[in-house]
Every structure is written in C-alpha cells, then in structure tokens.
Specification:
Helices cover about 75% and strands about 0% of the residues. By secondary structure, the protein is mainly alpha-helical. Keywords: Membrane, Transmembrane, Transmembrane helix.
C-alpha cells in the first residue's frame, strides 16, 4: 500500500496548497489594495475604485460597502495565491512566475475599464501606469512569498 493511500491527509496537503496559497493571496492582495488606495488618494486616479468595481457582476447591486468589495478582491487574490503555490510546487521559479501572474493580471484593465463610468478610461495613461505598477508589485510579492515557502519546503526547520 502506498504512503498516499495510508496517509491521505498528507497526500491532500501536498497536492492542494491551501494554507500557503491563502496566506500568499491575502498578503499580496492586501498590499495591492492598499497601494492602489494610496495612489487614488494622492493622484485622484480611480484605480482603487477599478480594483473594487463590481458594476458588471450580474445579480449584485452596483455598489456594496467597501469592506465587502475589498473582501471580494481578496477572494480573487486567494484563488490566485492557491493556484500560484500549486504551480511553483510543480515547476519552481517562484519569483519569475509571480511577476508573470502580476503582469497577466494587469491586463484585466482592458476588459474592466469600459464596464463602468466610475472607473478610468481605457486610454487614461496615468491610471494604466499605476494599475500596471501595482499589479507588478503584487506579482513580485507573490514571488517573494513563494520563494520563502519554496525554500522552507526544501529545507524544513527541525526543532
């Protein structure tokens, strides 16, 4: 009988990186949200509004309390974090893959911007710049969390 069959919880734990992914997603998502909120406060570019925008989600009111909208943003970040940890556990290169995810997620500006009059225009260069910088920082933080987690997995600490 294989070890995975005798100890299914250990098998599940190694195949589905829930805890590491949840923490990574929350840390990176909170950072992105705070970064874009500060940028919006300082520049009046509506990038934080865009991040939390739910105007296009059927069945939801166009506006919810900020904490609920931010929670929805964090739920997406957690899903990304779980996928990211799963991906690097299979193929390594945590920093470059984190930055790749950040770059890819910055492309969401293109379909999200036209969906609401409350968010920056598709051709707002300032908003695009801050959005891309924020998402590259998000990806870099994913990568740093992943590098730390990946190193801990290869070199466990024994007490």
């Amino acid at each position: 009988m294989s070890d995975a069959v005798r100890h299914p919880s250990r098998s599940l734990k190694s195949s589905l990186p829930l805890f590491s992914g949840i923490i990574t997603g929350i840390v990176s998502g909170v950072f992105l949200g705070l970064f874009l909120k500060v940028v919006q406060t300082l520049t009046d570019e509506k990038v934080y509004t865009l991040l939390l925008n739910i105007d296009f989600v059927p069945g939801l009111p166009p506006r919810l309390p900020e904490w609920i909208e931010f929670s929805l943003h964090l739920a997406v970040s957690v899903i990304i974090g779980i996928f990211y940890i799963w991906w690097i556990r299979r193929s390594g290169r945590p920093v470059s893959k984190g930055i790749l995810i950040g770059a890819a997620s910055s492309l969401l500006y293109l379909p999200l911007s036209p969906l609401s009059p409350r968010v920056p225009d598709l051709n707002d260069a300032g908003a695009i710049f801050y959005w891309v910088v924020g998402h590259l920082l998000f990806g870099t933080l994913l990568g740093l969390c992943g590098k730390y987690i990946h190193a801990k997995k290869r070199h466990p600490v024994h007490h």
